Amino acid sequence: MPNQTETRHPIRHFASAADYRKNFIVREQIDKYLPAGKHFVDEKEIFGKLDAASGTQPNDPARVRAILAKSRAIETLLPEETAALIQVTDRGLLEEMADTALAVKKAVYDNRIVMFAPLYMSNLCVNRCTYCGFRCGNEEQKRRMLTMDEVKQEVEVLAGKIGHKRLIAVYGEHPDTSTDYIAETIRTAYAHQVKSPRGAVVGIRRVNVNAAPLPVEDLRVLKQVGIGTFQVFQETYHRETYARLHPADTVKGDYDWRTTAFHRALEAGVDDVGMGVLYGLYDWKFELLASLYHARDLERQFNIGPHTISFPRLEPASGTDLPTTSPYLIDDDTFRRIVIITRLSVPYTGMIVTCRERPESRDACVACGITQMDASSNIAIKGYSDFASEQHQEKDRQQFVLSDTRTLEEMIAHLAREGIITSFCTAGYRCGRTGGCIMDALKTGKEGKFCKINAVLTFREWLDDFASAATRALCEPVLNKELEGIRENLPKFYPTVKEHYDRICKGERDLFF
Ligand code: SAM
Ligand code: SF4
Fold first, then answer.
1. Which long-range contacts (CB under 8 A, 24 or more apart) does 11-15 make?
2. Which segments of 110-232 does DSSP mark as H helices, in order?
3. Contacts of 386 by beta carbon, 8 Å cutoff, 6+ apart
4. Quick one: CA dihedral 373, 379, 385, 388, positive or negative?
């Protein structure tokens, strides 16, 4: 359980949505991270790097292989190196890049996929992002925020019936669902322990948050209630596009408030931050390189890069035709290229591809370096407790429509057939392995060791508490192979791991390294 000691912070409260819109942004908390008004996303420089890379033999095998060697050595690439990979078009070289991406993932993260589920808490929103079903004024959307009893009901399904341990809690931006509400929902989700179908006491062990940018004081409150990763998607780094899609009279209309969201989070001690571009809004080459400039600035100012990078792509949503008419929509091949180049450019980062994607596209991404996925997802507000199955979706109750509706059990079985182990590990932040500490551990292979052990222990729990006999039979060999790998490669740890493992088999829960 996270530290729940209460300390008062001066969170500001707002009398109305209009008051919030006008006064929420704290200008000094932007300016201090943009010294002399210079932004770390310099459009001219980014276009310049892309142009230079396309002008100088983009398919030169020697140059591309030299860059790939750097990725294999788990080194972060320079912008011009990422730009060079972005401009590669030769099929053979692209496949070498894909193979290297998978090799890098295996070196840092082994053959694990960490599993999580989204939990939509509220769709109240003061903003009018043109691509989003939750935008203010969209009459087709039914509005609601979960009460704490409803949060518990959702947890009962997520933790008690499906077997999830890790959530990404999602919120629109509204004064009624700002920091106090976010903190209360996180506390409630952590505190609600339930029984699995076989009687084990289970619960949510890590709550990540996807919400609007917040001031430092508010982020400190979230740190205190035990937030995992603070995720904010930039949507687009291209200023002119950003301004067109996010009206200037909305909070979200402030590009600089959003681009400095992680600087404030890191200042507040929330040191796992999750980035993402909403692909389809603007040219993917620019967006990908700009997002890496963002990561570099966090490393430069805080010595901590993004804990995760997500790859949302524009999906159909209620009351908007942008997801079908945008000139920048990307196909599956391009999507895969983006995933590959990100893996190669920032080898240590966790990478997430969600149920927005079709199953075939997600499977292709597993094979080139992603580390986290969701399954059995329902993004309708109160969808888990109201709907009987993953296939049930209601456009006017959710932000967009999901494409991959496989259950957690189906996904785990599918991964096991590929020799991949599903991890429900949430130990990192509970042991203080976050931010810069986890980055160093990942770069030197230390974190991989703990992750491997915790993956085995948590997978054992899930198989015992939730799996059908057929899934268990399918997964046991994968699990045994991992355990054997620990015995061979981590002999010093093995006796304690085995002791923990045996205790879990006898019914103890939540033992971790
Ligand atoms: N309201 C907060 C904000 O905008 O930062 C956070 C929650 S918002 C529901 C989460 C993310 O959903 C957004 O950052 C955006 O990238 C994504 N999103 C919005 N509309 C989408 C669509 N039509 N397809 C795919 N993703 C979408
Ligand atoms: Fe609101 Fe976020 Fe949707 Fe924009 S993306 S309308 S801020 S919920």
1. 11/179, 11/180, 11/217, 11/218, 11/221, 12/215, 12/217, 13/175, 13/180, 14/175, 14/178
2. 148-155, 179-191, 216-224
3. 380
4. negative
Least-confidence region, from 390-394, 404-408, 478-482: 390-394
The preferred substitution site among 171, 181, 278 for testing ligand 1, maximizing ligand atoms within 8 Å of CB, is: 278
Query: What pLDDT was estimated at residue 299?
Result: 95
Q: What are the pLDDT digits (tens) for 262-315?
A: 999 999 999 999 999 999 999 999 999 999 999 999 999 999 999 999 999 998
Parallel/antiparallel/unpaired status of strands 201-202 and 194-195: antiparallel
Structure-token match 């687009």, residue found:
236
Q: Which residues pair with 310 in a beta bridge?
A: 276, 352
For ligand 2, the distance from its centroid to the CA atom of residue 37, given in whole angstroms, is: 27
How far away, in angstroms, is 280 Cα from ligand 1 center? 13
How far, in Å, from the CA of 133 to the mean position of ligand 1?
9
User: What's the half-sphere exposure (Cβ side, CA atoms, 13 Å) at 131?
Assistant: 23
Total residue length of the chain: 513
Q: How close is the Cα of 467 to the center of ligand 1, in Å? A: 32
Query: Which 8-state DSSP code applies to residue 313?
Result: B
- Nearest protein Cα to ligand 1, atom 14: 233
Q: What is the pLDDT of residue 392?
A: 66
Per-residue pLDDT tens over the stretch 401-431: 788 999 999 999 999 999 999 999 887 666 6
Residue 448's pLDDT is 58
CB atoms within 10 A of CB 66: 12
For residue 248, give Cα distances in angstroms to 67, 102, 252, 392, 487: 41, 42, 8, 36, 58
Report the distance separating Cα 513 and Cα 495, nearest Å. 13
Residue 128 alpha carbon, nearest atom of ligand 2: 6
C-alpha to C-alpha distance for 46 and 201, rounded to whole angstroms = 51
Cα 44 to Cα 25: distance, rounded to the nearest angstrom: 27
Nearest CA to ligand 1 atom 19: 132
Q: What is the pLDDT of residue 1?
A: 43
Q: Whose CA is nearest to atom 4 of ligand 2?
A: 129
- Residue 60 alpha carbon to ligand 1 centre in Å: 38
Ligand 1, CB within 6 Å, residue ranges = 131-132, 134, 170-173, 210-212, 232-233, 235, 278, 312, 314-315, 317, 323, 356, 399-400
Pick the atom of ligand 1 nearest to 132's CA: 20
pLDDT one-digit tens code per residue, 50-70: 999 998 788 999 999 999 999
* Per-residue pLDDT at 4 exceeds 50: no
Pocket-forming residues, ligand 2, beta carbon under 6 Å: 125, 127, 129, 132, 134-135, 172-173, 212, 252
User: What is the model's pTM?
Assistant: 0.94
By most ligand atoms within 8 Å of CB, the mutation choice from 120, 127, 174, 242 for ligand 2 is 127
